[in-house]
Amino acid sequence: MRDRVLNLKPMLCFFTLVVLVCMLSWVFFIGSLSLEKYYSNITILCRKVSSDNYNLVEGMKKLEVPNQAILKVFMYDLPAEFHFGLLGWKPDSSSKSVWPDVSVVDKIPGYAGGLNLQHSIEYWLTLDLLSSVLGDRTSSSIATRVDDSREADIIFVPFFSSLSFNRFSKNGTDKILQDKLVAFLIVQKEWKRSSGHDHIIMAHHPNSMMYARVKLWPCIFVLADFGRYPPRVANVDKDVIAPYKHIIERSMNGTSTFHDRKTLLYFKGAIYRKDGGFVRQELFYLLKNEKDVHFSFGSGDETGVQNASKGMRSSKFCLNIAGDTPSSNRLFDSIASNCVPVIISDDIELPFEDVIDYSEFCIFIRTSDALRKDFIVNITRAVNEERWSQMSSRLKEVENFFEFQHPSKKGDAIQMIWQAIARKVPSVRFKLHRTHRFSRYKHEFTKPADLDQHQLHN
Ligand SMILES: *[C@@H]1O[C@H](CO)[C@@H](O)[C@H](O)[C@H]1NC(C)=O
Ligand SMILES: *[C@@H]1O[C@H](CO)[C@@H](O)[C@H](O)[C@H]1NC(C)=O
Ligand SMILES: *[C@@H]1O[C@H](CO)[C@@H](O)[C@H](O)[C@H]1NC(C)=O
Ligand SMILES: *[C@@H]1O[C@H](CO)[C@@H](O)[C@H](O)[C@H]1NC(C)=O
Protein backbone atom coordinates (compact mmCIF):
# COMPACT_ATOMS: atom_id res chain seq x y z
CA MET A 1 0.00 0.00 0.00
CA ARG A 2 2.76 2.37 0.99
CA ASP A 3 4.68 1.64 -2.20
CA ARG A 4 1.74 2.40 -4.39
CA VAL A 5 1.32 5.81 -2.83
CA LEU A 6 4.98 6.57 -3.39
CA ASN A 7 4.70 5.56 -7.03
CA LEU A 8 1.73 7.76 -7.58
CA LYS A 9 3.48 10.87 -6.33
CA PRO A 10 5.68 11.63 -9.40
CA MET A 11 2.68 11.11 -11.68
CA LEU A 12 0.59 13.48 -9.64
CA CYS A 13 3.33 16.08 -9.80
CA PHE A 14 3.67 15.67 -13.55
CA PHE A 15 -0.06 15.97 -14.04
CA THR A 16 -0.26 19.12 -11.91
CA LEU A 17 2.61 20.63 -13.87
CA VAL A 18 0.95 19.96 -17.22
CA VAL A 19 -2.31 21.49 -16.03
CA LEU A 20 -0.48 24.54 -14.71
CA VAL A 21 1.44 25.10 -17.96
CA CYS A 22 -1.77 24.81 -19.97
CA MET A 23 -3.61 27.26 -17.77
CA LEU A 24 -0.76 29.76 -17.79
CA SER A 25 -0.33 29.74 -21.56
CA TRP A 26 -4.06 30.17 -21.97
CA VAL A 27 -4.09 33.12 -19.60
CA PHE A 28 -1.19 34.71 -21.46
CA PHE A 29 -2.86 34.14 -24.82
CA ILE A 30 -6.10 35.78 -23.71
CA GLY A 31 -4.13 38.52 -21.97
CA SER A 32 -2.12 39.36 -25.05
CA LEU A 33 -5.32 39.80 -27.03
CA SER A 34 -7.28 42.13 -24.82
CA LEU A 35 -4.90 43.64 -22.30
CA GLU A 36 -2.03 44.59 -24.56
CA LYS A 37 -3.58 47.89 -25.51
CA TYR A 38 -4.62 48.55 -21.94
CA TYR A 39 -1.15 47.99 -20.57
CA SER A 40 0.58 50.11 -23.16
CA ASN A 41 -1.78 52.96 -22.31
CA ILE A 42 -0.91 52.65 -18.65
CA THR A 43 2.79 52.70 -19.44
CA ILE A 44 2.40 55.90 -21.42
CA LEU A 45 0.41 57.50 -18.62
CA CYS A 46 3.05 56.60 -16.06
CA ARG A 47 5.81 57.92 -18.20
CA LYS A 48 3.97 61.18 -18.63
CA VAL A 49 3.47 62.05 -14.99
CA SER A 50 5.87 59.99 -12.95
CA SER A 51 9.59 60.43 -12.83
CA ASP A 52 10.48 57.32 -14.72
CA ASN A 53 13.05 59.20 -16.68
CA TYR A 54 16.35 58.37 -15.09
CA ASN A 55 19.24 56.44 -16.50
CA LEU A 56 21.58 54.51 -14.35
CA VAL A 57 24.98 56.02 -14.98
CA GLU A 58 27.90 54.47 -13.17
CA GLY A 59 25.70 53.28 -10.36
CA MET A 60 24.32 56.72 -9.63
CA LYS A 61 20.95 57.92 -10.74
CA LYS A 62 21.16 60.65 -13.34
CA LEU A 63 18.14 62.82 -13.41
CA GLU A 64 16.74 63.58 -16.82
CA VAL A 65 14.49 66.53 -17.09
CA PRO A 66 11.72 66.24 -19.64
CA ASN A 67 11.83 68.69 -22.51
CA GLN A 68 8.20 69.65 -22.63
CA ALA A 69 5.34 70.67 -20.42
CA ILE A 70 4.09 67.85 -18.24
CA LEU A 71 1.78 69.86 -16.04
CA LYS A 72 -1.22 71.98 -16.98
CA VAL A 73 -1.88 74.62 -14.37
CA PHE A 74 -4.87 76.87 -13.84
CA MET A 75 -3.97 80.01 -11.86
CA TYR A 76 -6.55 82.19 -10.11
CA ASP A 77 -6.40 85.86 -11.09
CA LEU A 78 -6.24 86.97 -7.48
CA PRO A 79 -6.21 90.74 -6.90
CA ALA A 80 -2.70 92.24 -6.84
CA GLU A 81 -2.82 92.76 -3.06
CA PHE A 82 -2.17 89.00 -2.73
CA HIS A 83 0.99 88.93 -4.83
CA PHE A 84 2.84 91.68 -6.69
CA GLY A 85 0.92 94.34 -4.76
CA LEU A 86 2.83 93.19 -1.66
CA LEU A 87 5.98 94.25 -3.50
CA GLY A 88 4.64 97.74 -4.07
CA TRP A 89 3.54 97.09 -7.64
CA LYS A 90 0.22 98.58 -8.79
CA PRO A 91 -1.81 97.49 -11.80
CA ASP A 92 -1.98 99.99 -14.60
CA SER A 93 -5.30 101.83 -14.34
CA SER A 94 -5.79 101.43 -18.09
CA SER A 95 -5.25 97.68 -18.02
CA LYS A 96 -7.65 95.16 -16.54
CA SER A 97 -4.91 92.65 -15.75
CA VAL A 98 -3.96 91.94 -12.14
CA TRP A 99 -0.51 90.87 -13.34
CA PRO A 100 2.58 92.82 -14.33
CA ASP A 101 3.76 92.52 -17.90
CA VAL A 102 6.39 89.78 -17.81
CA SER A 103 7.36 89.89 -21.46
CA VAL A 104 10.35 92.15 -20.73
CA VAL A 105 12.44 90.49 -18.04
CA ASP A 106 14.12 93.71 -16.90
CA LYS A 107 10.77 95.34 -16.14
CA ILE A 108 9.45 92.62 -13.85
CA PRO A 109 9.12 93.88 -10.25
CA GLY A 110 11.87 92.39 -8.07
CA TYR A 111 11.25 90.40 -4.89
CA ALA A 112 12.11 91.78 -1.44
CA GLY A 113 15.80 91.47 -0.59
CA GLY A 114 17.83 90.14 2.31
CA LEU A 115 16.57 87.14 4.22
CA ASN A 116 13.14 87.45 2.57
CA LEU A 117 14.72 85.75 -0.42
CA GLN A 118 15.04 82.44 1.42
CA HIS A 119 11.31 81.86 1.00
CA SER A 120 10.89 83.42 -2.44
CA ILE A 121 9.62 80.26 -4.20
CA GLU A 122 6.17 81.92 -4.37
CA TYR A 123 7.62 84.62 -6.61
CA TRP A 124 9.58 82.32 -8.93
CA LEU A 125 6.78 79.82 -9.47
CA THR A 126 4.23 82.56 -10.18
CA LEU A 127 6.58 84.29 -12.64
CA ASP A 128 7.29 81.00 -14.34
CA LEU A 129 3.58 80.38 -14.86
CA LEU A 130 2.92 83.89 -16.10
CA SER A 131 5.66 83.58 -18.69
CA SER A 132 4.84 79.98 -19.63
CA VAL A 133 2.45 81.25 -22.28
CA LEU A 134 4.89 83.69 -23.88
CA GLY A 135 5.98 82.56 -27.32
CA ASP A 136 9.63 81.99 -26.49
CA ARG A 137 8.97 80.08 -23.26
CA THR A 138 6.43 77.46 -24.24
CA SER A 139 9.02 74.97 -25.42
CA SER A 140 11.09 74.96 -22.22
CA SER A 141 8.37 75.13 -19.56
CA ILE A 142 7.55 72.17 -17.37
CA ALA A 143 4.31 73.80 -16.26
CA THR A 144 1.95 75.59 -18.63
CA ARG A 145 -0.78 77.95 -17.64
CA VAL A 146 -4.19 77.07 -19.06
CA ASP A 147 -7.28 79.30 -19.04
CA ASP A 148 -9.86 76.58 -18.61
CA SER A 149 -9.68 75.01 -15.17
CA ARG A 150 -11.32 71.82 -16.47
CA GLU A 151 -8.26 71.20 -18.62
CA ALA A 152 -5.87 71.67 -15.71
CA ASP A 153 -4.01 69.02 -13.72
CA ILE A 154 -3.78 71.36 -10.75
CA ILE A 155 -5.07 74.72 -9.55
CA PHE A 156 -2.44 77.25 -8.44
CA VAL A 157 -3.14 79.85 -5.72
CA PRO A 158 -0.77 82.78 -6.30
CA PHE A 159 -0.59 84.22 -2.76
CA PHE A 160 2.86 85.44 -1.66
CA SER A 161 2.23 84.15 1.85
CA SER A 162 5.84 84.23 3.10
CA LEU A 163 6.28 87.84 2.06
CA SER A 164 2.91 88.65 3.59
CA PHE A 165 4.09 87.17 6.89
CA ASN A 166 7.56 88.75 6.80
CA ARG A 167 6.40 92.24 5.94
CA PHE A 168 2.77 92.59 6.93
CA SER A 169 2.07 90.44 9.96
CA LYS A 170 2.88 93.11 12.56
CA ASN A 171 -0.11 95.31 11.77
CA GLY A 172 -2.53 92.47 11.02
CA THR A 173 -2.60 92.78 7.23
CA ASP A 174 -1.30 89.23 6.85
CA LYS A 175 -4.21 87.78 8.81
CA ILE A 176 -6.73 89.86 6.87
CA LEU A 177 -5.30 88.56 3.60
CA GLN A 178 -5.46 84.96 4.82
CA ASP A 179 -9.09 85.35 5.86
CA LYS A 180 -9.92 86.94 2.52
CA LEU A 181 -8.18 84.13 0.69
CA VAL A 182 -10.15 81.42 2.50
CA ALA A 183 -13.42 83.28 1.84
CA PHE A 184 -12.47 83.57 -1.83
CA LEU A 185 -11.37 79.97 -2.33
CA ILE A 186 -14.23 78.09 -0.75
CA VAL A 187 -16.82 79.63 -3.07
CA GLN A 188 -14.88 79.00 -6.29
CA LYS A 189 -16.24 76.30 -8.58
CA GLU A 190 -12.73 74.86 -8.83
CA TRP A 191 -12.51 74.44 -5.07
CA LYS A 192 -16.01 72.95 -4.81
CA ARG A 193 -15.26 70.51 -7.59
CA SER A 194 -12.28 69.01 -5.77
CA SER A 195 -12.76 70.15 -2.15
CA GLY A 196 -9.36 71.73 -2.69
CA HIS A 197 -7.45 68.47 -3.20
CA ASP A 198 -5.94 69.70 -6.48
CA HIS A 199 -5.03 73.19 -5.19
CA ILE A 200 -1.41 74.27 -4.73
CA ILE A 201 -0.77 76.67 -1.85
CA MET A 202 2.69 78.00 -1.15
CA ALA A 203 3.56 78.48 2.51
CA HIS A 204 7.32 78.24 2.60
CA HIS A 205 7.93 80.42 5.65
CA PRO A 206 7.14 78.21 8.67
CA ASN A 207 4.85 80.93 10.08
CA SER A 208 3.07 81.80 6.87
CA MET A 209 -0.61 80.84 6.43
CA MET A 210 -0.80 80.38 10.18
CA TYR A 211 -4.55 81.07 10.33
CA ALA A 212 -5.65 79.67 7.00
CA ARG A 213 -3.67 76.43 6.92
CA VAL A 214 -6.08 74.31 8.96
CA LYS A 215 -9.03 75.51 6.89
CA LEU A 216 -7.29 74.69 3.63
CA TRP A 217 -5.89 71.32 4.70
CA PRO A 218 -7.01 69.26 1.68
CA CYS A 219 -4.74 71.21 -0.69
CA ILE A 220 -1.13 70.48 -1.61
CA PHE A 221 1.11 72.77 0.42
CA VAL A 222 4.57 73.74 -0.82
CA LEU A 223 6.60 73.96 2.39
CA ALA A 224 10.09 74.11 3.86
CA ASP A 225 9.33 71.39 6.41
CA PHE A 226 6.47 70.01 8.53
CA GLY A 227 7.82 71.31 11.84
CA ARG A 228 4.84 73.49 12.71
CA TYR A 229 2.10 71.47 11.03
CA PRO A 230 -0.12 68.78 12.54
CA PRO A 231 0.24 65.63 10.39
CA ARG A 232 -3.37 65.82 9.25
CA VAL A 233 -2.87 69.28 7.78
CA ALA A 234 0.46 68.60 6.09
CA ASN A 235 2.46 65.44 5.52
CA VAL A 236 5.01 63.95 3.18
CA ASP A 237 2.45 61.98 1.17
CA LYS A 238 0.28 64.93 0.27
CA ASP A 239 2.62 67.91 0.20
CA VAL A 240 5.76 69.12 -1.53
CA ILE A 241 8.99 70.20 0.17
CA ALA A 242 10.75 72.98 -1.71
CA PRO A 243 14.32 74.20 -1.19
CA TYR A 244 15.17 77.53 0.39
CA LYS A 245 16.83 79.97 -1.94
CA HIS A 246 20.43 80.07 -0.80
CA ILE A 247 21.66 83.41 0.48
CA ILE A 248 25.34 82.75 -0.05
CA GLU A 249 26.42 83.21 -3.64
CA ARG A 250 27.17 80.07 -5.54
CA SER A 251 30.87 79.30 -5.42
CA MET A 252 32.31 79.76 -8.88
CA ASN A 253 35.68 78.76 -7.49
CA GLY A 254 35.97 75.34 -9.02
CA THR A 255 39.50 74.77 -7.79
CA SER A 256 38.76 74.55 -4.09
CA THR A 257 39.91 71.03 -3.28
CA PHE A 258 40.15 68.85 -0.19
CA HIS A 259 43.52 70.32 0.74
CA ASP A 260 42.52 73.92 -0.07
CA ARG A 261 39.82 73.68 2.54
CA LYS A 262 41.71 74.05 5.80
CA THR A 263 38.76 73.97 8.18
CA LEU A 264 37.36 70.51 8.88
CA LEU A 265 33.95 71.54 10.13
CA TYR A 266 32.12 74.86 9.97
CA PHE A 267 29.08 76.20 11.76
CA LYS A 268 27.77 79.70 12.16
CA GLY A 269 24.31 80.52 13.37
CA ALA A 270 22.15 81.64 16.23
CA ILE A 271 22.83 79.79 19.48
CA TYR A 272 19.72 80.09 21.60
CA ARG A 273 16.88 78.43 19.82
CA LYS A 274 13.51 77.08 20.78
CA ASP A 275 12.35 73.51 20.21
CA GLY A 276 15.04 71.24 18.76
CA GLY A 277 17.65 74.01 19.00
CA PHE A 278 19.05 73.02 22.41
CA VAL A 279 21.35 70.73 20.45
CA ARG A 280 23.30 73.72 19.16
CA GLN A 281 24.38 74.68 22.63
CA GLU A 282 25.42 71.16 23.56
CA LEU A 283 27.43 70.82 20.37
CA PHE A 284 29.12 74.14 20.96
CA TYR A 285 30.58 72.86 24.24
CA LEU A 286 31.60 69.59 22.60
CA LEU A 287 33.31 71.18 19.62
CA LYS A 288 34.65 74.56 20.70
CA ASN A 289 38.11 73.27 21.62
CA GLU A 290 38.75 71.25 18.45
CA LYS A 291 41.48 73.07 16.55
CA ASP A 292 40.23 72.68 12.96
CA VAL A 293 36.58 73.25 13.80
CA HIS A 294 34.95 76.65 13.43
CA PHE A 295 31.85 77.00 15.59
CA SER A 296 30.50 80.48 16.18
CA PHE A 297 27.32 82.33 16.71
CA GLY A 298 26.49 85.05 14.27
CA SER A 299 23.65 86.79 12.54
CA GLY A 300 22.31 86.70 9.03
CA ASP A 301 23.03 90.36 8.32
CA GLU A 302 25.13 91.56 5.40
CA THR A 303 28.61 91.17 6.96
CA GLY A 304 27.54 87.94 8.65
CA VAL A 305 26.58 86.47 5.29
CA GLN A 306 29.87 87.49 3.70
CA ASN A 307 31.82 86.04 6.58
CA ALA A 308 29.84 82.79 6.48
CA SER A 309 30.34 82.45 2.76
CA LYS A 310 34.13 82.72 3.19
CA GLY A 311 33.98 80.22 6.03
CA MET A 312 31.90 77.67 4.15
CA ARG A 313 34.05 77.87 1.05
CA SER A 314 37.18 77.11 3.04
CA SER A 315 35.70 74.17 4.97
CA LYS A 316 35.38 70.51 4.08
CA PHE A 317 32.15 69.97 6.02
CA CYS A 318 29.37 72.30 7.07
CA LEU A 319 27.18 71.54 10.04
CA ASN A 320 23.41 71.81 9.67
CA ILE A 321 21.83 71.64 13.08
CA ALA A 322 18.12 71.84 13.83
CA GLY A 323 17.11 75.33 14.92
CA ASP A 324 13.64 76.78 15.47
CA THR A 325 12.45 74.43 12.77
CA PRO A 326 13.96 71.21 11.42
CA SER A 327 15.17 72.90 8.20
CA SER A 328 17.05 76.07 7.35
CA ASN A 329 18.59 77.74 4.35
CA ARG A 330 22.03 76.80 5.69
CA LEU A 331 21.80 73.43 3.92
CA PHE A 332 21.38 75.19 0.58
CA ASP A 333 24.15 77.63 1.45
CA SER A 334 26.41 74.63 2.09
CA ILE A 335 25.49 73.08 -1.23
CA ALA A 336 26.13 76.36 -3.06
CA SER A 337 29.53 76.57 -1.32
CA ASN A 338 30.41 72.99 -2.23
CA CYS A 339 30.86 72.27 1.46
CA VAL A 340 29.68 68.72 2.28
CA PRO A 341 26.65 69.05 4.61
CA VAL A 342 26.65 67.23 7.94
CA ILE A 343 22.98 67.10 8.93
CA ILE A 344 21.97 66.83 12.56
CA SER A 345 18.21 67.20 12.48
CA ASP A 346 16.15 64.09 13.06
CA ASP A 347 12.92 65.52 11.63
CA ILE A 348 14.32 67.30 8.60
CA GLU A 349 12.48 66.91 5.31
CA LEU A 350 14.45 67.29 2.12
CA PRO A 351 13.28 68.54 -1.27
CA PHE A 352 12.84 65.99 -4.07
CA GLU A 353 14.00 63.12 -1.88
CA ASP A 354 11.99 60.70 -4.04
CA VAL A 355 14.47 61.34 -6.84
CA ILE A 356 17.62 62.47 -5.01
CA ASP A 357 19.61 60.25 -2.63
CA TYR A 358 21.10 62.77 -0.22
CA SER A 359 23.38 60.21 1.37
CA GLU A 360 25.52 60.47 -1.77
CA PHE A 361 26.61 63.98 -0.82
CA CYS A 362 25.55 64.57 2.81
CA ILE A 363 26.45 62.94 6.10
CA PHE A 364 23.48 62.33 8.39
CA ILE A 365 24.08 61.99 12.13
CA ARG A 366 21.35 61.21 14.63
CA THR A 367 21.09 63.82 17.36
CA SER A 368 21.68 61.23 20.08
CA ASP A 369 24.95 60.20 18.37
CA ALA A 370 26.06 63.76 17.67
CA LEU A 371 25.95 64.48 21.39
CA ARG A 372 28.45 61.71 22.14
CA LYS A 373 31.95 62.98 22.71
CA ASP A 374 34.14 62.91 19.57
CA PHE A 375 31.47 61.29 17.43
CA ILE A 376 31.14 64.06 14.80
CA VAL A 377 34.85 64.75 14.70
CA ASN A 378 35.69 61.07 14.34
CA ILE A 379 33.23 60.58 11.50
CA THR A 380 34.36 63.61 9.51
CA ARG A 381 38.09 62.99 10.08
CA ALA A 382 37.59 59.46 8.82
CA VAL A 383 36.50 60.71 5.40
CA ASN A 384 39.57 60.57 3.17
CA GLU A 385 40.36 62.74 0.19
CA GLU A 386 38.94 60.30 -2.33
CA ARG A 387 35.61 59.92 -0.57
CA TRP A 388 35.32 63.65 0.07
CA SER A 389 36.04 64.43 -3.58
CA GLN A 390 33.32 62.00 -4.64
CA MET A 391 30.81 63.75 -2.43
CA SER A 392 32.01 67.15 -3.57
CA SER A 393 31.60 66.33 -7.24
CA ARG A 394 28.16 64.88 -6.57
CA LEU A 395 27.32 68.18 -4.87
CA LYS A 396 28.30 70.02 -8.03
CA GLU A 397 25.98 67.78 -10.02
CA VAL A 398 22.94 68.46 -7.85
CA GLU A 399 23.70 72.14 -7.21
CA ASN A 400 21.55 73.24 -10.13
CA PHE A 401 18.45 71.60 -8.64
CA PHE A 402 18.49 74.29 -5.95
CA GLU A 403 18.98 77.35 -8.18
CA PHE A 404 16.17 79.87 -8.53
CA GLN A 405 16.22 82.16 -11.54
CA HIS A 406 13.99 83.76 -14.07
CA PRO A 407 13.56 82.67 -16.79
CA SER A 408 13.91 79.22 -15.31
CA LYS A 409 16.35 76.85 -16.93
CA LYS A 410 16.34 73.12 -17.48
CA GLY A 411 16.63 71.20 -14.21
CA ASP A 412 16.71 74.19 -11.85
CA ALA A 413 14.75 74.49 -8.60
CA ILE A 414 11.63 75.85 -10.30
CA GLN A 415 11.40 73.00 -12.76
CA MET A 416 12.21 70.49 -10.03
CA ILE A 417 9.34 71.82 -7.91
CA TRP A 418 6.91 71.60 -10.83
CA GLN A 419 8.00 68.02 -11.39
CA ALA A 420 7.55 67.21 -7.72
CA ILE A 421 4.03 68.62 -7.99
CA ALA A 422 3.43 66.61 -11.16
CA ARG A 423 4.31 63.45 -9.23
CA LYS A 424 1.43 64.23 -6.84
CA VAL A 425 -1.12 64.41 -9.65
CA PRO A 426 -1.92 60.67 -9.77
CA SER A 427 -2.74 60.58 -6.06
CA VAL A 428 -4.86 63.72 -6.39
CA ARG A 429 -6.80 62.06 -9.20
CA PHE A 430 -7.20 58.98 -7.05
CA LYS A 431 -8.77 61.06 -4.27
CA LEU A 432 -11.02 62.94 -6.68
CA HIS A 433 -12.29 59.80 -8.36
CA ARG A 434 -13.15 58.30 -5.00
CA THR A 435 -15.15 61.36 -4.02
CA HIS A 436 -17.03 61.05 -7.33
CA ARG A 437 -18.38 57.58 -6.43
CA PHE A 438 -21.61 58.76 -4.88
CA SER A 439 -21.71 62.33 -6.12
CA ARG A 440 -23.29 61.33 -9.42
CA TYR A 441 -25.90 59.27 -7.66
CA LYS A 442 -26.90 62.28 -5.64
CA HIS A 443 -26.89 64.86 -8.43
CA GLU A 444 -27.88 62.99 -11.55
CA PHE A 445 -30.07 60.07 -10.56
CA THR A 446 -32.12 61.55 -7.78
CA LYS A 447 -34.61 64.08 -9.01
CA PRO A 448 -35.25 67.04 -6.75
CA ALA A 449 -38.98 66.11 -6.78
CA ASP A 450 -38.22 62.72 -5.24
CA LEU A 451 -36.26 64.39 -2.51
CA ASP A 452 -39.10 66.77 -1.73
CA GLN A 453 -41.61 63.95 -1.47
CA HIS A 454 -39.26 62.02 0.71
CA GLN A 455 -38.92 64.97 3.01
CA LEU A 456 -42.70 65.37 3.16
CA HIS A 457 -43.10 61.79 4.32
CA ASN A 458 -40.69 62.35 7.11
C1 LIG B 1 0.55 97.65 7.36
O1 LIG B 1 1.87 98.05 7.08
C2 LIG B 1 2.18 98.18 5.70
C3 LIG B 1 3.63 98.55 5.55
O2 LIG B 1 4.29 98.65 6.74
C4 LIG B 1 1.27 99.21 5.05
O3 LIG B 1 1.55 99.29 3.67
C5 LIG B 1 -0.17 98.79 5.26
O4 LIG B 1 -1.03 99.78 4.73
C6 LIG B 1 -0.47 98.61 6.73
N1 LIG B 1 -1.82 98.11 6.88
C7 LIG B 1 -2.65 98.53 7.84
C8 LIG B 1 -4.00 97.90 7.86
O5 LIG B 1 -2.32 99.34 8.67
C1 LIG C 1 39.28 80.27 -4.53
O1 LIG C 1 40.12 79.24 -4.06
C2 LIG C 1 41.44 79.66 -3.80
C3 LIG C 1 42.26 78.44 -3.45
O2 LIG C 1 41.78 77.84 -2.30
C4 LIG C 1 41.45 80.72 -2.70
O3 LIG C 1 42.76 81.15 -2.45
C5 LIG C 1 40.58 81.89 -3.13
O4 LIG C 1 40.48 82.82 -2.07
C6 LIG C 1 39.18 81.39 -3.51
N1 LIG C 1 38.39 82.49 -4.02
C7 LIG C 1 37.16 82.74 -3.61
C8 LIG C 1 36.47 83.88 -4.26
O5 LIG C 1 36.61 82.07 -2.74
C1 LIG D 1 34.43 87.15 10.44
O1 LIG D 1 34.87 86.01 11.18
C2 LIG D 1 36.13 86.20 11.81
C3 LIG D 1 36.60 84.91 12.44
O2 LIG D 1 35.55 84.07 12.72
C4 LIG D 1 36.01 87.32 12.85
O3 LIG D 1 37.22 87.53 13.51
C5 LIG D 1 35.56 88.58 12.13
O4 LIG D 1 35.35 89.62 13.05
C6 LIG D 1 34.29 88.37 11.34
N1 LIG D 1 34.00 89.51 10.53
C7 LIG D 1 32.79 90.07 10.45
C8 LIG D 1 32.68 91.24 9.57
O5 LIG D 1 31.83 89.62 11.02
C1 LIG E 1 36.79 58.56 18.47
O1 LIG E 1 38.09 58.16 18.09
C2 LIG E 1 38.93 57.85 19.21
C3 LIG E 1 40.34 57.60 18.69
O2 LIG E 1 40.33 56.81 17.55
C4 LIG E 1 38.34 56.67 19.95
O3 LIG E 1 39.16 56.36 21.07
C5 LIG E 1 36.93 57.01 20.41
O4 LIG E 1 36.33 55.89 21.03
C6 LIG E 1 36.08 57.48 19.25
N1 LIG E 1 34.81 57.95 19.78
C7 LIG E 1 33.62 57.72 19.23
C8 LIG E 1 32.41 58.27 19.94
O5 LIG E 1 33.48 57.11 18.20
UniProtKB/TrEMBL annotation:
Location of the Exostosin GT47 domain: 71-378
Annotated TM spans: 12-35
Membrane topology classification: Single-pass type II membrane protein
Subcellular location, record wording: Golgi apparatus membrane
Entry's Gene Ontology molecular function annotations: glycosyltransferase activity
Keywords, alphabetical: Glycosyltransferase, Golgi apparatus, Membrane, Signal-anchor, Transferase, Transmembrane, Transmembrane helix
Gene Ontology CC terms, in alphabetical order: Golgi membrane
Keyword Acetylation among record annotations: no
Domain of life: Eukaryota
Family: Belongs to the glycosyltransferase 47 family.
Protein's UniProt name: UDP-beta-L-Ara: arabinan alpha-1,5-L-arabinosyltransferase, family GT47
Organismal lineage: Eukaryota, Viridiplantae, Streptophyta, Embryophyta, Tracheophyta
